Amino acid sequence: MKRIILIIGLNLIALSTFHSMEALAVQDNTDVKAHAVTSTNIHFITQYMDGVSIHHINKMHIISIDDYVKQHPGWSVIKQSDTDLFLKKTVDDLSPVSKAVGVLGLKDGNTLTLFKGDPKENEIIQTFFQIDIEALQVNDFENLKKGIRIENKERYQNMLQMLARFEVVQE
Questions:
Q1: For residues 34 and 30, what is the distance between their CA atoms, to the nearest angstrom?
Q2: What is the gyration radius of the CA atoms in the chain, in angstroms?
Q3: Structure pTM?
Q4: Which end of the chain, N or C, is less packed with Cβ atoms under 10 Å?
């Protein structure tokens, strides 16, 4: 009998506590909101100067997207939905792929192109512009046919700047 009274007593205390909290919410005219932790796909898109984009996806449980974004300076929101958040960062440097195996060469005989490895394999990272190959020195043309290794941002920019003088202008 004591157990039944104790259980009924505990239930009455819990019920009166709930009603007290409900009454306080009504008295203060405030809403009681529950923050649900939802599973969100965070898409990190890193855009490099050579045109390469690297896309990583992390599935996370976050409470506030705004707080999450504030914790990631340098990233900007480009798209958002209930289940996905797309963050993008632009990097003023070559991508890891270009640093490792980037080669400037010619596609179709006269189009300046950045390749992933040997130009003969035709794995294109980025295409730039057509070159007047007749205006190039023979040595420069031969080097472009074989491919010129690009290992860093400075070499990449210098080569593009030097070769831009030979760009075929479409009229």
A1: 13
A2: 31
A3: 0.70
A4: C
